[in-house]
Amino acid sequence: MHQPVTNNPFVIMIINMVIVFTVLIAVWALIEITHRIDPTKKKAEPPAAQPLGTAAPTAPAASAPRTGGLNAETVAVIAAAVSACGCSASQIQAIRPAEQPAWTGYGRVSGMRS
């Protein structure tokens, strides 16, 4: 019969961890190689050089957002939350409460029970 090399659980744990991390590093290396040779990746275009005498084009001034009854502090908090998610505040089209019929129904039932 075959005898185990060791019965020490710590040695077995170390061997298993080395195997697992070796495989993870190999998979990571394959992913990195794939990202480097990816033919579908778009190449970054260098920005066009502007003559020294001209100013950079500016974005048109956005009209003041309509708040729909919300105070400016609430609008600022929503804009900050959207910016934290990676979008710019200029991408906000409208701020309006979401339709929540389940909450309305719960409120009606709760009012009738009390």
Short description:
With 114 residues, the chain is mostly helical. Helices cover 47% and strands 0% of the residues.
Structural features, described:
The protein has 114 residues and is mostly helical. Among the domains are: 1-38; 68-97. 47% of the residues lie in helices and 0% in strands. It contains 3 helices and no strands. It has helices spanning 9-36, 72-84, 101-113. The model has no long low-confidence stretch (mean pLDDT 77).
How many distinct helices?
3
Beta-strand residue percentage: under 5%
**First-last Cα distance:** 77 Å
- Kindly provide the radius of gyration, computed on alpha-carbon positions and rounded to a whole number of angstroms: 30 Å
Helix content: 40-55%
**Got a strand count?**
0
Pick out the low-confidence regions: none
Shape: flat
Task: Summarize the biggest pleated sheet.
Answer: none
Q: If you average the pLDDT, what whole number results?
A: 77
Give helix and strand order, one letter per element, not per position.
HHH
Query: Structural class, judged by helices and strands?
Result: mainly alpha
Topology record:
Layout: H1 9-36, H2 72-84, H3 101-113
